Amino acid sequence: MKKFALTVTSAMLIAALSGCSQNAPTTETKDKSAMAEKVQQETNPLLAEYSGPYGGVPAFDKMDLSLLVPALEKGMEINLAEVEDIVNNPEPATFENTIVPLEKSGAELGRVFTYWGIWSSNKNSPEFREIQAEMVPKISAFSSKINQNEKLFARVKAVYEGDEFKTLNSEQQRVTWLTYNGFARNGATLEGEAKKRYAEINQEVASLQTKFANNVLADGENYVLYITEEQLSGLPESFVIGAASAAEQRGEEGKYAITNTRSSMDPFLTYSDERELRQKVWETYYSRGNNADEFDNNELIKQILKLRHERVQLLGYDNYSQWRLEDRMAKNPENAMELMQKVWPAAIARVEEEVKDMQAVADAEGADITIEPWDYRYYAEKVRKQKYNLDSDQVKQYLQLDKLREAMFYVAGRLFNFEFTPVEEGKVPVFHPDVKVWEVTDLTTGEHIGLWYLDPFSRKGKRSGAWATTYRSYTTYDGKKTVLSSNNSNFVKGPEGEPTLISWDDAETYFHEFGHALHFLSAKVAYPTSHSGVRDYTEFQSQLLERWLTTDEVINNYLVHYKTGEPIPQELVAKIKKASTFNEGFKTTEYMASAIMDLLYHTTDPAVIDPQKFEKAELTKLGMPEEMVMRHRSTQFGHIFSSEGYASSYYGYMWAEVLTSDAAEAFAEAPGGFYDEELSKKLVKHLFAIRNAMDPAEAYRLFRGRDANVEALMRDRGFPVK
């Protein structure tokens, strides 16, 4: 309930307010009203309780946009009714009569937002965007009604500050604190005009963020470069086949489509010999949201930053970052920036070395150029071949999507005791033919754990990138609920009958997102709020899982040539491992530039910020290399401007990477290596199963016996350790 669209808490009883009026209704009137409401819920599949096998599954086969608005409106009505039931309880506030009903509330609305998430991320359309624009302010207003409900907050506060709190178990105490803190940090303590203005700002920000995201999506869809056979020089066969297929899908048979997505842009810039085309693709991709047209995001950034700043000032904070980081591992922006500053000098120093190597190759070839941003990937690949005799396209021949999925299942079996079994097609509804489903069970007992949905391929209407989510989380407080987890990617689909081949970076991302799914599937917590994430910690588990891609068991058994079926040669494996820190300057710098800019945007007076000037000026101060740009330039930085999930928290990937590097060293030192049985048990128990039912820093100490240190990260990246 408290988190509505982000993580709506699950299942609750319906409190019918439909009969309330000045005059008490008759029993007959109440019965008719209740029956009408029941009929409406049953006939709208977006509201209905999940049915079917595996404890119930979403009715993805019954999704119809015409149902969305009435479902949202009814879901919010039901949720507000539940809140009224809680606040009107005449008994003194307790955990059982206040916190538990809050945990149960919002089930109908939560189910609606499951479908909303599919339409938003996997099946976006102009029709949905119209609904989104209409409903987002209403959803924000609904959320404010709950967050600013004084009687509700008073009851939560009474539980948090009461004598009963000391008698609760550790998870119940943390859930109570998280609930109290969520209200206190979101306007519950405000009064009068300040409270009203806070709610108004929430609605305005929500609308602007939605528009920002849709503008980036529009630029991603509107800009497609079609090239001809004469312009394919340097491009590997697998990419050419995918580009031809993408063009054919868009009605341009005989041409080759370079879409405005990272999965298309990145390999094109790596392999294409056509420098002018590389520049065009680079400029198009990095100009998203910055084309001085109807989809331009510069003004939206200014408005979002000003409103966020005004809102936190109402709560007494100096800037947005202070408010955002208060309950994160970093605690404040100074600590987050301190970590960035420890790593930044080594990163840009490495970039300087990389550029020198690339310029030397260009000069030796007589290219008569100075390395520009659209040259970086292309010449880095040439350096890779020269330094390590390693050809990325050669490696790609051994990276089949299906085989990598089998490898992930193998790792899940060894570490988590999970078994993945394909669900028969048609048994579980899906929202697109590309989506496949697996049942997850305990290898030893056969106990059903949950389902895993996979939507792997890029298509029109699907947002870029890769992500994981849940359609239902594990809880036990109101009867055991099993997990419905999901992974989503944007790989370029191989032609009919051919395997989909991906790059090494994409393979790491595949494992990364699967790490999130394993985090969902391994949960052993009682309450929905225990699933609320600490942003600079939740990336740790998924980043750590990337390390199993390079274990011998995975390499020797699952990396096989897509044509011959032969295992990847050991000499090629040796080259991959030797080159593991190659181009680390580029990867670290492009990420950190975005993370630092995020912190700067949210610690600077927004009145003086003009996004393009600010981005350029601050990166110049940092000594940003001219040969590259931020991974996410300001006008397309959806992590921080299309929602507040990562706002002032993009640094969290690096914070989590410190934990990752430190934990990876623990496995490297263990007797059984990365498959050490005892350490794996500790990993699952303390770092995966616990979710947010315990302070993350305490959980990590239980696993490692101490705090993590940054030196492990520096060693991992091949940077000098002082």
What can you see in these coordinates?
The chain is of the alpha+beta class. Among the domains are: 27-147 and 149-189, Neurolysin, domain 3; 223-286, no CATH class. The protein has 28 helices and seven strands. It has helices at 27-43, 68-87, 95-104, 107-122, 126-147, 150-161, 170-184, 192-222, 237-249, 262-271, 275-286, 298-314, 320-325, 333-364, 376-388, 392-396, 401-416, 504-521, 535-545, 552-558, 570-578, 584-601, 611-622, 638-641, 652-669, 677-688, 696-704, 710-716, and strands at 224-227, 256-259, 418-422, 436-442, 448-457, 467-472, 483-491. The chain has a five-stranded mixed β-sheet, with helices on both faces. Strand 4 (436-442) and strand 5 form a beta hairpin. The protein is globular and about 85 Å long. The protein starts with 26 loop residues before the first helix and ends in a 6-residue tail after the last helix.
Brief account:
InterPro entries: M3A_DCP, MetalloPept_cat_dom_sf, Neurolysin/TOP_dom2, Neurolysin/TOP_N, OpdA_N, Pept_M3A_M3B, Pept_M3A_M3B_dom. Among the domains are: about 25-145 and about 150-190, Orthogonal Bundle (Neurolysin, domain 3); about 225-285, no CATH class.
The count of β-strands is 7
Low-pLDDT stretches are 1-30
Strand order of the largest sheet: 3-4-5-7-6
In one word, what is the shape? globular
User: Which class best fits the helix and strand makeup?
Assistant: alpha+beta
Question: Which value, in Å, is the CA radius of gyration?
Answer: 26 Å
